[in-house]
Batch of 3 targets.
Target 1
Amino acid sequence: MLSHTIITHDPVTAYNSTPRLISSPNSIVCGGVGGGKSSFVKTVYVIRPLVIRYRRAVIFDKKNRAGEGEYAELVRKWGQGEPIRFTTEGSGSRLNLLDPLIVNQIGSAGTYRLLHAIVRIARDGAQLDEWEEKAARSALKKTLAVHEEGREPTLADILPLLGSVADESDMTAHALDRLHQAGLGIRFTLEGLLDEYGGLLDGETSAGVDLTGKLTSFDISQLPNEGPSSHVVRAIGNQWMLGRLRTDPGWQTTCINEEGWDMVEGPAAHLLKSNQKLSRGLGLNNVFVFHKGLDIPLDSPGRTVISEAQSIYVFRQDRKEDADWAVRTFGFDPSTAETLQTLAPGQYIFKYGAVPETHVEHVRSSIEVGLTDTDEGMRGDGRQDDA
C-alpha cells in the first residue's frame, strides 16, 4: 500500500530457497470477523498453489455454509471427490485413534500422547495425574500387544484393560487399588465419549478417509461448537494425516486449520509441538487461522508454535489490546498497532522471516472472487459459471 508494487510469497518456496528465506514453513493468519481472512486463505493457500506440481492442500473445515463446510465446492471441483464429512449421528465418516497409519508413524509413545490429548479434550482440558497416566499408558501398551498380529485395534479395545492391574505384582494392595481406580476413571471418560460420539470414533477408520487429488477437506462444520467432538476429530485427523503422508512421499502438503485456535491452545497443542520436526520431514506446512491471540494462555505450548511461524498475516484487530498483542508477538514496529486497528477489509500486515512488516492489500482476479466469496457462496449468483 506504500509503494503500490506487487508482493508475492509462497512459504514452501521460501523455505526451500538457497539460502532459506524462512526457517519454518508454518503460517499464521489472524484477524477479526469481516477482515478478509477466509477469502485470502482460499486464494493464496488453496487455489493458487494447486497449479504447482506435487502440491496439495488439506483443510479442517469448521465454518458451516448451507449444511456443509465452506470448502465443499472447491473440493468437488479440484479434489476429485467429496469432502470427508463428520457428523454426530453416525451418518458421516469415522476415525480410529489406533489406526495403523497413526501407530506405525508416531510409535507407541506418540500414540499415547494422542490418547492423553483425547482424554484431556473430553475432560475440558483437565490434566491427568501420574496414576491416571500410568493406567492409560499400561492399557494402551497391552492393547497394542494383544492385536499386534491380529485385527486392527480400536478405541473400544482399550476400555476393558483400563483398571487392569493383574501384572503389577510389585505394588502394595493400596497402590493396586489406587491404580485400579485411576484406570476406571479414564475408562469412564472414554466410555462417555464413545456413547456420545460412537459414530465418529468407534471402529476402524472409514474407507472414504483418504487424501484424494490435490485438495482434501475434513468437513467438521456439522459438529457442535460445544463439546469435544470437533477437537477430537481435528487431533486424530492431524495424526492420521502425518501417517498418510509417509506412505505417499514427494508431495508438499499445506494443512489449513480454519478456526484453529484449539490446535494452538488446547491439549492438542502438545501434539503439534512434538510433531513439528516430523511434519517438516514429511513436507507438511501448517496454516493456523484464528481471530485473536489473547485467547491463547501464556503457558500453552501453542505459544511456541506461533512464535516459530515465519509467515505472518494479521488482518484488522478491532481492539487495542489485540493489536498490541500482535505487535509484541510478531515483533512489529510499535506504530503498527494503530494501523492494525484501521485496516480496511482485504488489507493486512504481512511479515516473513527477518523482513520487516508491510501493509498489503489482497488482490483477487474476477474468477478468484467468484470462487472465494464467503458471504454469497460459490453458487449463489452464478459468478463461477460466468467466469
Target 2
Amino acid sequence: MALHLGATCHAQFPDGQFYVDLRDDSGELGPTPGAVLLRLLRRMGVEPDRIPPTEAGREELYRRLTSGRRAMVVIDHVSSVAQVRHLIPSTPDVFLLVVVSGPPILLESEAVEVLPLARRDSLEMMRKVAGREKVTRAKAQIPHVLAHCNGNAFALKASAVRLLGEDEELEKRFCPWIAGGRTL
C-alpha cells in the first residue's frame, strides 16, 4: 500500500520518495537506529564517504537533506520505535510512513488500520497479478486460497505469484499453508 500511495501521490513529493525495507536484517530485533539512518541515507543517494560514522551525525545529515524539501520516506517492517524515532520530520513537507506488521509501536503519529481486502477485491488482485486465465484455471482451489489469505494483500500477491510459477522461495517464506503440500 505504501508503494501504491507513493505512485498515486507522486506529484506531492517532487523532491523524492525513499523506501527502506527492514525485513531482511538478520538481527533478532532488526537494525539499530544508526543502521536504519545509514540505509536511508544510501537510498537518498549520499555517497558512502559522505555518510557520518555516528548516529547523531547521520541524523543531522538526514535533517539537512530533508529541510525545506517535499519528500516521502517509507520505512517498512519496523519492529521498534527506536528504529524510526530519529526520522520524525522536523519540516511539515516530509511525509514519514512507518509500516509495522507486528504489534503497534508508540510513536507520535496517527495509526491507520489497514483492513483486509473484501473477497471481490482479493480475487481482482489475484487476477491482476497472475492473469485472468491462470486464476480461471485454478478456479476450484481459489476459494481455499482466498480463505487462507483472509484479505491480506501481501499473502494474496504471493499466492498469485505462485500461480505464475515465478518464485517458489517467496511462497515458502510467506505462504506456508501452500508450501505445506496444498497446491493451487
Target 3
Amino acid sequence: MHSAELIEAIQSSLSELVTYADELRDLDQALGDGDLGITISLGAAAVTEALGALPEGTPPSDVARACAKAFANANPSTMAALVAGGLLAGSKAWTGIEDVDVSAAARFARAAGDNIAQRGKTQLGDKTILDVILPVADALDAAEDGTGGLDAAIAAAEKAVVETRPLQSRRGRAAWLQERSIGLQDPGATAIWRFVESWRKAGINR
C-alpha cells in the first residue's frame, strides 16, 4: 500500500485498538501500574492527529517516523518510549520504499522487535511485547507470495500471548511480582496482538 492508503489503514486500525483500552487497563493493573489503557488511547489519538497533518505524498518511512514522534510525545511512560523507539527502527527498514507490502511489513516488525530487545534488555521468553512482535515478523516472512500474511500474523500473535501466560515475567514492573506473575497475561504483549487484530477489524486485508 502507498502512503495515502497506509495512513488510512493506520488511523482505522488505531480507532479499533482503543476499543480494547479497558481490557489493557485491567491486565496492566494485575501486572503493572494500570496505565496501559490510557497510554494506548492517548498515543492513538496523537498518532491519528499527526498523520492527518502530513502532506500528500509523504513516504512510508516518514509516516512511521511521524507515528513514533507522536506516540512518544503523548506519553511519558517506558512503554511509550520503547514503542516509539521500535517504530523509529522500523522506519529505517522502509527507506526508499514507496509501496509497503507484506515483506516490507515483516522487515519493519523485525527491526522494531530487535530495537525493543536491545533498548529493553529483553529476550524471547521474558514475557514482554517482544514475545509477540518477533513471531508476527516470522509469520509475515513466511506468508506465501505475500498472501495470507495478516491472518498468519494475527494467529501468531494470539498463540504467543497464550503460550507466555504460564511464564514468569522477567522485565519491567511485572517482574516485581516474580512467581505471582505466572498465569497472568502480559498486557504489552496483548496490546500488540490487539493492534495486529485491529487491522483486520478495520477491513484491511494485507
